[in-house]
Every structure is written in C-alpha cells, then in structure tokens.
Amino acid sequence: MSSQDIPEESLPSTQGTAHEGAVATGEDPFADPGLPPHEHRIQDIDERAAKRSERVVAFLFSLSMLATVGFIVAYLAIPVDKNIYVFPIGHISALNFSLGLALGIALFCIGAGAVHWARTLMSDEEVADERHPIEASPEVKAKVLADFADGARESALGRRKLIRNTMFGALAMFPLSGVFLLGGLGPKPGTKLRKTKWSAGKMLINQNTLQPLRPEDVQVGSLTFAMPEGMSEEDHDFQQEIAKAALMIVRLRPENIKDKRELDWSVDGIVAFSKICTHVGCPISLYEQQTHHVLCPCHQSTFDLSDGGRVIFGPAGHALPQLQIKVNDKGYLEAMGDFPEPVGPAFWERG
C-alpha cells in the first residue's frame, strides 16, 4: 500500500518537519557528518605500553623462527614410518604431524605479529581523501610519496629496531621450510633408471605360468611376457622392478628379421624386447602377427619388432631396447646381460 492510499488524517503530523526545518535554517540535511573524533590508544600516550606491544610482536616473530627451526629438525630427525597417537585424531604419522604443527605455528606467529603490530603501534588515524581523476597529477604523485613517507615513519620500523630485526629474521627463515621440503621429492635416482633385474645367466620366466621358458614354448607369431628369474610378486619392490624389467618374447622367422643386431641377439628367431613404451612408460600388449608390429594402447606408438624395435608411428622418441638372449645348458632361454640402454621414456640423465 502506498502513502497515496492512506487517508490524510492517518498520516503522521510531523512528516517532513525535519527537512523543512533544515531548509528554513539553511542547513543541508544530507551534509557529510565527517569522521568521528580520533581516540588515542594507550600505546599512543604511554611509551611503556608501546614497549610491551613491541616485545609481544618481537616474541611472536621469534616464536615463528623457533617453529621454523623445529620444522627443519623434525624433517631431519623423525623417521618416515614412525606413528604416534594424538587424541582425538588417533594414530597418525609423527613426521606429518610435527611438520604440520611447526609450519602452522610459524605462519600463525608471523600473521599474529603483523596484526598486533598494526593494531597497537602503527597509526590508526582515519584519513578521508576526495575522489580524483584516474590520471595522477604531479601534486597527487607528490602527495602519494609524502603519504608513503608518513606511513613508513608512523610504522616506527626504523625506530623499533627490535620489531624490525625479528620480523626480518622470521621472514628470512620461514622460506627454509620450503627448501627442506624439496628433500621430500625422494632420493636422487642415481643409476637406478639405467639398470634392471636382468643380468647374465638369469632365465626368462613366463609371467603367466611362472615357469622357465624353452625355445619350443614360443611359437611363431605368438607373444609371451617374461620376467627375470628370482623375482616374485611377493617382493616389496616387485612393482617398481617389473616396471623396468618386463619383457616381450616374440618368435619371428629368421628371414623376416631385417636388423642384423636383432638377428644376432635372437635364438632361432626368438627376440626379446622391453615391454615398456618409450613414450610415457605404458605396457605394450597389442601385437600384429602379419606386420610384426606392436602397438602401445595409451598413445598408439607403433614399433616394428622385425626391424630393431624402431618407431614407425606415434609420439615415442626411440626404439624399444632389445635384450640379448641365448639357450643355456639345460635348454632354457636366459639373458646374456642387462638391456644396453635405459628402458622406458627418455629422462634427463639419458645420453
């Protein structure tokens, strides 16, 4: 219901009185009331209170430095596999709990120190500034610089040396936490990426039957997967090692093998190549009997097993490594050494 629908006698008799009174006296009813009067804090009038606040801020920054040191000590001293009981969370990693607690304290103390410094020691006087064009005039630039200088002076950063030094210390030490976290990326690979479980004399074990392979077990056109003798799926590092040592066994007709070294490293046309794609490390499992090509299912890299395992299609960067094999005295296929080059995708140490 609008005011036009209300009977005139029902309208308040004082409606418009304030506005009319203001007009009558020449006052602007919408005038800017301005800022409330500034109330000084105890730190503004009592230097002893200011000193106490300074010590509190310095204590928080110092505590942040100690927490950073604690973070580094915990990272170096606490074993990765150690667990502790923390109520009400339960059993958790002692290392993760210590690192998180130390890092949280370090961050909190820096933030709390900065907030306490701003609220008790920096100027809290409100300043109203008129709106101005976006383009800054020389006078505005000069004013900004002057305001910056005033702010720097009012922050007492130069005069409060204890705060300044402890703040710089906290900010300088805190990034050390991130530097030490780089160690969590794990130990350097060293030569582990260059070596596999294959070595001279190790028999080729069929991954399906877990039995040593004889030449007669591999038929022309068949594809068999093998692993080194001595490996077991129960080993704690089986997945890491099989990712490098997995082998493809294919039997070709010797006259179909185009690469001389491949023929020399084979046994009656039986060739052994790494099963790990040289693009991003996917296991290869698709074999075309007529073309002697194997296809990686991830990104369709295609390799010719009759021509040294070279890449004929797709994003893979280099040929599949071949393993030199022979037949031992017992009639089983065995390796004559490790792969001549690192298996799988290219990596920064390859060369």
Outline of the structure:
The chain is α+β, with helices and mostly antiparallel strands and 351 residues long. It has helices at residues 17-25, 42-45, 47-77, 94-120, 138-154, 161-173, 175-181, 238-245, 260-264, and strands at 83-86, 90-93, 204-206, 223-228, 247-251, 270-274, 286-288, 293-295, 302-304, 310-313, 322-323, 325-327, 333-335.
3D structure, described in words:
The chain is an alpha+beta fold and 351 residues long. It is 34% helix and 14% strand. It is built from nine helices and 13 strands. It has helices spanning 17-25, 42-45, 47-77, 94-120, 138-154, 161-173, 175-181, 238-245, 260-264, and strands spanning 83-86, 90-93, 204-206, 223-228, 247-251, 270-274, 286-288, 293-295, 302-304, 310-313, 322-323, 325-327, 333-335. Strands 3-4-5-6-11 form a five-stranded antiparallel beta sheet. Helix 3 (47-77) runs antiparallel to helix 4 (94-120) and helix 3 runs parallel beside helix 7. The protein is elongated and about 110 Å long. The N and C termini lie far apart (86 Å).
